[in-house]
Amino acid sequence: MINLTINNMPVQVTEGATILEAANKLGIKIPTLCHTRLDCFNVEHRSGSCRICVVEVQGRPNLAPSCCTPAMEGMIVKTNSIRAINARRTMLDLLLSDHPKDCLTCEKNLNCQLQALAHELDLHHVLYKGEQSTYNKDLSSRSIVRDLDKCIMCRRCETACNTVQTVGVLSGVKRGFEAVVAPADLRPLSESQCVFCGQCVLACPVGALTEMSYKYDVWKAINDETKTVVVQTAPAVRIAIGEEFDMEPGSIATGKMVTALKMMGFDKVFDTDFAADLTIMEETTELIERVTKNENLPILTSCCPGWVKFLEHQFPELIYMPSSAKSPQQMFGAITKSFYAEKMGLKREDIIVVSVMPCLAKKYEASREEFSTDGNPDVDIVISTRELADMIKEAGIIFDRLEDSQYDSPLGESTGAAVIFGATGGVLEAALRTAADWIAQKDIKEIDFEAVRGLEGIKEATVNVAGIELKAAVCSGLGNARALLERIQRGEAQYHAIEIMACPGGCLNGGGQPYIHGDTTILEKRLKAIYQDDQNATIRKSHENPSIKALYEEYLGKPGSHKAHELLHTGYTPRKCW
Amino acid sequence: MTINSAEALKEHVAKLKSAAAPETKILVSMGTCGIAAGTTPVLEAINKYIEEKNLQNAFEVVEVGCMGLCHSEPSIEVINTVSGNSIIYGDVSEVQVQAIIDAGADEIARGTKTVERTWYYPEKEENTTNAIQAKVVLKNSGRINPEVLDDYLVNDGYGALAKALCEMKPQEVVDEIIASGLRGRGGGGFPTGKKWQFAAAQKTDEKFMICNADEGDPGAFMDRAVLEGDPHSVLEAMAIGGYAVGAHTGVIYIRAEYPLAIKRLRIAIEQAEKAGLLGKNIFGSGFDFNIELKYGAGAFVCGEETALIHSIEGMRGEPTFKPPFPAVQGLWKKPTIVNNVETYANIGAIIRKGANWFKTIGTAGSPGTKVFALAGKINKVGLVEVPMGTKLKDMIYTLGDGIVDGKKFKAVQTGGPSGGCITASMIETEIDYESLKALGSMMGSGGMIVMDEDDCMVNVAKFFLEFTLDESCGKCTPCRIGNKRLFEMLEEICDGRGTMETLDKLKSLSMTIKDTALCGLGQTSPNPVLSTIKNFEDEYLAHINEQRCPAGVCTSLISYQINDKCVGCTLCARNCPVNCISGEKKQLHEIDQSKCIKCGVCFQACKFHAIDKI
What we know:
The complex is a heterodimer of chains A (578) and B (614).
Chain A lengths: L1 E5 L2 E5 L5 H7 L10 E3 L4 E3 L8 E4 L6 E2 L10 E3 L3 H16 L15 H8 L23 E3 L9 H9 L6 E3 L6 E3 L16 H5 L5 E3 L3 H8 L5 E6 L20 H11 L3 E4 H22 L5 E2 L4 H10 L13 H17 L6 E7 L3 H6 L5 E2 L2 E2 L3 E4 H10 L21 H4 L6 H15 L17 E8 L2 E9 L1 H12 L7 E5 L19 H16 L9 H11 L5 H7 L10
Parallel strand pairs in A: 1-7, 12-13, 12-15, 14-21, 15-18, 20-21
Antiparallel strand pairs in A: 1-2, 3-4, 5-6, 5-7, 8-11, 9-10, 16-17, 19-20
Chain B lengths: L5 H13 L5 E6 L2 H6 L1 H14 L6 E6 L11 E5 L5 E5 L6 H7 L9 E3 L3 E2 L12 E2 L14 H5 L5 H9 L2 H11 L11 H9 L7 E6 L8 H8 L1 H15 L3 E7 L3 H16 L4 E4 L4 E10 L8 H8 L23 E5 H13 L1 H5 L9 E8 L5 E6 L4 H8 L9 E6 L5 E4 L9 H6 L8 E6 L4 H15 L5 H18 L5 H17 L3 H5 L2 H9 L1 H9 L14 E3 L8 H5 L5 E2 L7 E2 L9 H5 L5 E3 L1
Parallel strand pairs in B: 1-2, 6-7, 8-9, 8-12, 9-11, 13-17
Antiparallel strand pairs in B: 1-3, 3-4, 4-5, 10-11, 13-14, 15-16, 15-17, 18-21, 19-20
Helix pairs in contact in B: 6-10, 6-13, 7-8, 7-10, 9-10, 9-11, 10-13, 17-18, 17-21, 18-19, 19-21, 21-22
């Protein structure tokens, strides 16, 4: 143990602890900006670059960045000496001197940590004035907007992109005052191997990285009398959207959300969960087939477009591995513009499908060419959880006072197996529930596969499914996915099935979810809510969803049928990295 | 030829020493600077003449690295190896070659310029009268052919490595370096032995020795001279260090802008490997050591050790916070020693002659010598090596031969862009790490830029800050934005837009940057600003309060005007690049101030002192 004194108070910490951690133990908050940690994923970003957290250490010639200076025996630290205060204020002043002060119209207004810091440090005017960096906004992708004028070089996005996700797109380029974080050669994001997971957007403390917004397109669509506008909401949206309205994290706000969507003017409010059940039907069919034939194993899940794009770029030699089943979002779009359109006597052009997703990669996914027919996409517009919340606020809907409503039929009915798609492990668990029943040809009661639950990056389980030993793995975060795939390539690990989600923790921590600003207890509450919602469901197995049964009877035939393949399956394309 | 034991080395050297050699040696300075100044045609002329006259048995022509005589390149030295007489010629041209060879080493050829030798070799205990320089690091530079291994071997080369491997335990080597008091010559002055001790204490499977050859200070070329003139001395020292700390791989991180140094290092590594002086089981001791080269892309910040390591790893060259220090966790997360070229070049002599010998040179706190690149407004620009503790005055007036055109000495900038300026009043200062620090400057890598009365100190501060601004990696806020703001404030002052508030802000921001920046580059970048404010505040005040640049440098604050001494010769008008001077022949001319770009060409051209700089 190390003993030190901070602001005249003795404190004891374990060896390796930083001054920041020691101060925190004493109840002293040292302001930070670039430093961030996500405890539940064991991720810490401490580049020591913003210098906001500097403190005075007796005997040390210069100030110490508390986020990366280890506490030492006998250290005497002052966090609020005039020297430290002045330095801290000067650092903030300098950052603001090279930052557009257009907070009122900034995407991140009231969600910005630089803004919060200026408030916290009581800075009311910028002393050092001079040239400000200017760049063209990167609007090249469907998912992420890069506004480098606002970049403060905290490099958090780099840690997200390179260390956590190992995607390797964002890094520091150029030198000195011109230094900024960007893809190599300052190329647009669309020309990179970016998978649009949006973890960089979640990491960015300012408005330099935000989602591409389609809110206005949605308003226009809703107000277009000639169109039938249907909306689908992904599993992880309902357990997070309440946070945007000051509801307790982990609140299940499905009913209020449906009411709000109806109030906004959507013609039909459907559920991506329905399509998640449909995905399980197709994917489980494929799983059982591949396992029984013992070929092309392991089968990898394909619901997550960030993960799929990652595989296409980074492991093009493995593109035979994922299930050919489309993601729930795209199955929903395909069914809506075929089965539902026919049922309602509409042409596909007359329907606009809007998705509300916890995800930014879904915006990109909807734009993939193979998900269009004659230029008309299966899913027209994708907005994030945050965007939906913004629209609800703009519409003047007082969310927490809403009564609950039910999803519309027939694409609104779903099971507990579908809602757990929102957490890492959920897709696999849902598939196992169906696989077990199908293989055993009976209604199995033990359906809680606890081993695949939780926020750990890689989980392994050997599951007895009706007498068959299935070796399965669940993986979230692309860095973990890379590690696992490399082990498989080296022959060090063998599985029958692997679920992979790009975002650490799965969709509940997707790039389109409300900002948590480093408070990972929120993620744990979201996780709990998802499994609570599953428990609350009367039907908890996808193949028991009556609407799904009806869809097969009326339209698709059997899972894996020709018609099902035509509508619900896809293929993958090898892509380059540069 | 393989030298597989200490005895074999001794035998080989004895054989070399007893071999017959021509009586007279002609050393031709073939460093980058010599070649640039035109040594190649001189060399060709020498070879041609010797061949024509069939003098091969009497003369040996040796292509050597930098002799340090930048002020007199092309330079050659003629030595009689029997009598020991030597003559150094400067500014040699092809036409003088014949006379020089005919005169030999014992008389000065007519129609030539000779250069006084100001150095001695403490290792050889030669007479030291009148010699200010002491050559330890540069002992072989300008003396041996850097591309011939035997030339190095015959000058005690690899003797230190043999001694270390065959007679000393690794800890004894570390102890010897600690005892010598050798401090890092890259600028920081950290005790080298202590650094080695840290790495030696680490228990891991792999360690690395890195040589920092990313020399980047403006006006500094000490490391280049060593690498071009005596590359084996660095290889030998790295192997000694490797043995001491338990590393088997050395990496020389050298900037790609040093092609000749790279070429000579490549040759040297190949020679050493072939001779068994690098590679497996060196001198039969069981110790293996290999060296590879890594090229830097010329980023100044990569001279910072953590940035350098990242660059070798293929990452962006930017520093990370310490601890962990590289000696504990460096390249590929393994204990790594990063020493500068000049530091390494001291190691061989220390091992051969012992720590006590080394401590007889220099001062108690800073033993040994330091190589400086003398540059700026000085008569004899060049590379010098002096014992620590040498007076600034001796460097500038004796070695540098005073200020160009007899002008007044104003200041000298040491430590490059990280250092500060030292004024005339401090000229008696005995140079070592502490004394320079006390003056608000630093040793740095050894650049020494002399300024005279025509230099504006505000502009000088701006010049150095512009350099750091370009070379900052941009990682930390104070260096990325703070230095930009400092630069902008200096621009304001130079343009006459500065106020007393600007000066206050300049000072306080400089202090904060020093206090908060992440690495050495940022922490020292305001030094030129602070030291010029401290020593030349009057110049700042003149810019601010009187909109006047006392040295007449800041173009916004000066104007050229023609006085009545003008005889109407039209020379100024004909030279003016923007045609802003008008006037009839033999009539008083006039400058159109609205068009004048203040280039000063007219001022230089006028022969009648008829143009005033106001």
